[in-house]
Amino acid sequence: MAFELPKLNYSFDALEPYIDAKTMEIHYGKHHNGYTNNLNNAISGTELENKSIEEILKNLDLNNMALRNNAGGFFNHNLFWEIMGPNCGGNPTGEIAEAINSNFDSFENFKDTFKKSGATRFGSGWAWLCVHKEGKLEICSTPNQDNPLMKNGCGGNPILCLDVWEHAYYLNYQNRRPDYIEAFFNLINWEEVNNKYLNCR
Ligand code: MN
Question: Of 4, 64, 171, 175, whose CB is crowded by the most CB atoms within 10 A?
């Protein structure tokens, strides 16, 4: 059974002006689609064909670069599209809001730490918010298409992520990654992040 590129819940231009339609079209239609196809090629005819993407990520051999890059690329972008949306942003609500306050002292402090995590990742990669056992939250960063679920990851379950590859922002922001990161906070779908938090606590 092959993995499928998930449908977006919004149109390519829905995230403007923070993420432009052309970037969305290329990012989703070319990059994410490419990871999906390459993941399917990497697992074709192997026992991994019947595994979930989470199982594949948790158990993969980090020396298997085709699987590592494309399983990561598939999962990471799935989550990224899910936790953004139009008419979102603002302050978190629900239990995740309380959890952020108790783990990071304040939403502002969380925001600063998360922004720094994305801004200081050298080259390509991701910033993450992960949930550990008993609801403890952790911000981490991974290079390339690595993912917190991998053996080299933080061991938590990711509930929020930010793509800081240049392909995610270069058309609109060029080298201004910090501006893109700031704009991302207008797109976070906190209701969805809260759902994910409640599901994996
Ligand atoms: Mn990407």
Answer: 171
